[in-house]
Amino acid sequence: MTDDYLDTMVQRHTDRYVTRYGDDPYTSCWPWAQAAFDWARSNENLAFGLRHAFLHDDDIEHLPAAIAETLRLNAARHDNPPGDLDLDNARRELGYWSCNSAGGYPPPGTDGWPEPTGPYADRWRAAFLPPCPERAERLARGADSVLHSLLYVVAAASPQRAATAEYRLRTYGTTYVALAEAAPLLGITEPVPVGDPRVYRSIKGLTAVPAPGRGLRTQVASSPACPAWLSRRI
């Protein structure tokens, strides 16, 4: 992936997303992030829980912003709505960006990594500005821990998980655990826009609806340069 692509990726996705949905993608990612954070605080002793993230005390208040950002950045990489994001892929995204020197990623607050707009923009700025690589890396570890724990629990939800995986594999030739599959566990009851609602019809408690103007884009795990702590967790 070239630097030129990275320098425009997030803004191009934001422009498309606002046209489709009317909101900044960060705004759409926030309810997922807050729900995942609240769930993780109640389940800190899971195998990949927050107790393993080695956060500073003052990092915790910024963790919902970090989770929302790893979802937003991953949505930009794959041009998918939040519900269709591969949890195993999305959990790592902020780790790539927080170690920007490893892969040519732009720093936060620049044209290549622009601030979001909308009601949670102040929370983003409090977490990521002024740029502090050490804190950004800690927040990336925290977001990874939350989503990794969520992935672990959702992936074990058979047989409805198995039916979803089988349909996605048979229809699209790939399979993964999507964020939408976590909606019932997180208490998210609103309709979730996705590329192909049929993928999720076996998930009890989830109302999947067609995302406007698009079908499902299958995700292929990318392999950008990543920091050593993230490599060890993959």
Q: Note the gap between the termini.
A: 20 Å
Helix/strand structural class: mainly alpha
**Strand arrangement across the biggest beta sheet:** 1-2
Low-confidence stretches: 218-223, 225-229
Over all CA atoms, what is the radius of gyration? Answer: 16 Å
Fraction of residues in H or I helices = 40-55%
How many DSSP helices? 10
Mean pLDDT: 87
Main beta-sheet strand count, sense and barrel state? 2 strands, parallel
The rough form would be described as globular
What is the ordering of alpha helices and beta strands? Answer: HHHHHHHHHEEH
Secondary-structure map:
Elements: H1 3-21, H2 25-41, H3 63-78, H4 87-98, H5 100-103, H6 121-128, H7 133-155, H8 160-172, H9 183-186, E1 192-194, E2 208-210, H10 228-233
Parallel strand pairs: 1-2
Notable traits:
two-stranded parallel ribbon; single chain; 2 strands; 234 residues; mainly alpha; 52% helix
Give a concise summary.
The protein is built from 10 helices and 2 strands, in the order αααααααααββα. The chain has 234 residues and is mainly α. A two-stranded parallel sheet has the order 1-2.
Written overview of the protein:
Helices cover 52% and strands 3% of the residues. The protein has 234 residues and is mostly helical. It has a two-stranded parallel sheet with strand order 1-2. It is globular and about 45 Å long.
